[in-house]
């Protein structure tokens, strides 16, 4: 069976380097950032990398594995942030309350909007998710007591069981790291599970899956809600990392950025989502320090990636490795 | 809530709707015929406005600025089509979204570099400035009426082109089934270029016409783009008629909604919550409408035959 | 259990002015292999689509083991035991042949809302999948991506997938479509072995296969059932000969 084993390319089992080496490298490096540079600036930067990495992982679940291109994913991040922010505003600033609230709010919104959106497909799905994202954006913009358009500054980060541990940047960094690692492991498990297999099958051939007896809508909805909930976690962390919540967290441009991150790294790879988030954030940070007109470089870069670098970063690395003798 | 206000806002809604139609028409054709999601259509509109401002500064004549800006818009659009978009027709929607998103980023920054970040303006042509008395006590700007008339004229022109000319027939056929059209031996690339060029010119035209009223600034295409997409989704992709009706509907709903939301809500609730909920609801109205339409008719209200 | 496994009553479907299935009624008893033959465009595939739920019927009823399934969506009918093979191969091209079949076995093996544990390592599912692949002669190709199988192998895979569903009834839409002589013989042999295990509704153009396998044959022309009965009776029925079989009956 060794011939057959070699030709086993189907299923979700990644090649060894991708499945073991790459995640080790990525998370290893992330774990070492506070050691390599204790500066708050660096910590903040990589906190953002991990937070958007979490949001991108969630998006990759539904885009890369479910085949559902959602253009309103930033809404879930924003909802998570606002849940934390609003509770903190009213003096309920503990993680044990705020985090579950963030997850719940995002998940409920995902359930309600997903139930409607998933009745459509193709570009209509893209548009309707965009519409729901806009609705969330405008609702947040109109919440005058919570800052409205301008957003709301949070006096302090969430406490944990009463203790103000997240005020220490290192502690917060590792808490974010733990969340990112946890989400990654969760997504890996999901994708290879029975549920994940049905989802991936539905992406390839929904008619066939229905003919097998699977109610595709239900699986996609559950995936959509899970993705929303995970993005809510990212939102909670974002509110804490920046001490700020704003409707801009939910803008359609942000949703677009999340899609770009997933594509940058390689759609449908999971590691790619984290890599893509890192690439996007680090690149825009670096470029913006170099010139205020960094979009002039970034824009064409996106076009170039689409035209020439199919499969994103991971696709490129794959190709390089295949060229080695 | 006076009758006068109602009439004015209805006219404003029509004007907005007509503007949306000019932008959505190109978008729906490009999407319908080439199955190409062009997020950069919004910057095409913005570019039209900027070019008009520039040519007006150079020539001092609105008419000259209009013509030159239209030609420049068309040229730029065709350039984009030739160099980049052409390669994206075969790709999936996600990749098209990302590539055109990159173009938005580039051009929004680009106009800042060339023309600065402060808003620019274009004066209304002398002869068409000022207001006209529509009925006792009702003054309405002439230029807005010009926009409405121009938009309706373009709509009629498009309808005529699409229904009675050979190219129009090919476009309609392409919107239903592009592959079939190419199999029939029609030079599909040339058809695509014509469709794209026309759409681009329409968007640029919209930008030129609106420049005297709105301020011309980076990012002005972004909101309008989203609305245009809502229009074509509600109207049905590939359908000019659908785009027209949906654009007017949205223009009216949005304008009237924003003006009267608070007043209407006051009929059901206390003034204070009405004032908070009102504006939010007004902004969301169009999206609620789209969600509703998609729920009931997932292919839009007037999909091109053969789709949906 | 007595009574027909599948009963189709007055099934009709029209697209605009075109009537595709016209008041079709059929019965399929337990263990029966019922073949439907007829010229192209007679409405045979539409009939199967109506029975399996892919196409909504405009009139009539479908009873499966006595239960009215006319209003049920496709996935519910499949879950109730009504399996089908598609005329145009419909598999998951990037999954291996084994995983294609394992997904079918998974559908019959409890809940798929399990979020942990690698599905492709579940021994029971893989064993059932391998067994189905062996039945159709594909076990050596288990690990090949389905999209890379030959056309005949893909047709066999369709059959294996249906088998893994442990169906109460199988709808086969031209399983031999486009297969060469050898592959046809293999698939035909498989169907012969399956006879009696569960009832089958078979659409086929290959007359030798039809007359070798079928217990009963119905002839469909222009959306209507022209004649229905034992193979020999059909072969010699003058209406059928005139309308369809022509020289082929010889």
If you had to describe this structure to a student in words, what would you say it looks like?
The complex is a heterotrimer of chains A (325), B (308) and C (250). Chain A has one domain: Orthogonal Bundle (ABC transporter involved in vitamin B12 uptake, BtuC). Chain A contains 14 helices and two strands; from the N terminus they run ααααααβααααβαααα. Chain A has helices at residues 2-6, 16-36, 40-65, 74-89, 95-117, 123-141, 169-192, 194-204, 206-211, 216-242, 252-265, 271-290, 295-308, 312-323, and strands at residues 152-153, 244-245. Chain A has a two-stranded antiparallel sheet. In chain A, α3 packs across α11 (252-265), α5 packs antiparallel against α10 (216-242) and α7 (169-192) crosses α8 (194-204). The longest helix of chain A is centred in the C-terminal third of the chain and has 27 residues, at 216-242. Chain A starts with a helix and ends with a helix. Chain B has one domain: Orthogonal Bundle (ABC transporter involved in vitamin B12 uptake, BtuC), CATH 1.10.3470. Chain B has helices at residues 3-34, 41-59, 62-83, 93-115, 142-164, 166-176, 178-183, 188-210, 220-235, 240-266, 271-296; strands at residues 131-135, 138-141. A two-stranded antiparallel sheet of chain B has the order 1-2. The relative contact order of chain B is 0.19. Chain C has helices spanning 44-52, 74-79, 97-107, 123-135, 151-164, 181-194, 207-213, 231-236, 238-245; strands spanning 6-15, 18-28, 33-37, 59-64, 67-68, 82-85, 169-173, 200-203, 216-221, 224-229. Chain C has a six-stranded mixed β-sheet with strand order 6-7-8-3-9-10, with helices on both faces. In chain C, α3 (97-107) runs parallel beside α5 (151-164) and α4 (123-135) packs across α5. Chain C starts with 5 loop residues before the first strand and ends in a 5-residue tail after the last helix. The model of chain C has no long low-confidence stretch (mean pLDDT 89). The chains are: A mainly alpha (325), B mainly alpha (308), C alpha/beta (250).
